[in-house]
Amino acid sequence: MVKVATYFAMTLGAFVFWQSMEKIHVWIALHQDEKKERLEKEAEIRRVREELLRQAKEREDALA
Questions:
Q1: Model pTM greater than 0.90?
Q2: CA 19, CA 13: separation in Å to the nearest integer?
Q3: Where do the coiled-coil regions begin and end (predicted)?
Q4: How far apart are the C-alpha atoms of 54 and 36, rounded to whole Å?
Q5: pLDDT tens per residue, range 25-56
Q6: For position 61, what pLDDT does the model report?
Q7: How far apart are CA 58 and CA 17, in angstroms?
Q8: Which of the 8 DSSP states describes residue 5?
Q9: Using a CB cutoff of 8 Å and minimum separation of 24, what contacts does 16-24 make?
Q10: Which is it for the CA torsion 40, 45, 48, 54, positive or negative?
């Protein structure tokens, strides 16, 4: 009976362990995706800002 209970407990423990590892893996993947999206948005903002500054400088040079 002890062997059966030990086997059951070990099986349950392994199941809980794998489920928690799966949740941790999904959580890490989501955060990596969020970070990548944030960096892409920041890069796009930087590009647009530089383009606008360049256009403003060209207008300034044309007026001067």
A1: no
A2: 10
A3: 31-58
A4: 27
A5: 999 999 999 999 999 999 999 999 999 999 99
A6: 85
A7: 61
A8: H
A9: none
A10: negative
pLDDT score, position 18: 96
Could you tell me the CA-to-CA distances from 45 to 14, 48, 52, 53, 59 in Å, in that order? 47, 5, 11, 12, 21
Q: Which two tokens stand for residue 43?
A: 């890069």
Q: Kindly state the tokens that stand for 44.
A: 């796009």
Q: Residue 64: which H helix or E strand, with range?
A: none
Question: Helix, strand or coil for residue 4?
Answer: helix
The radius of gyration of the chain's CA atoms, rounded to the nearest angstrom, is 28
Give the whole-angstrom CA distance, residue 15 versus residue 20.
9
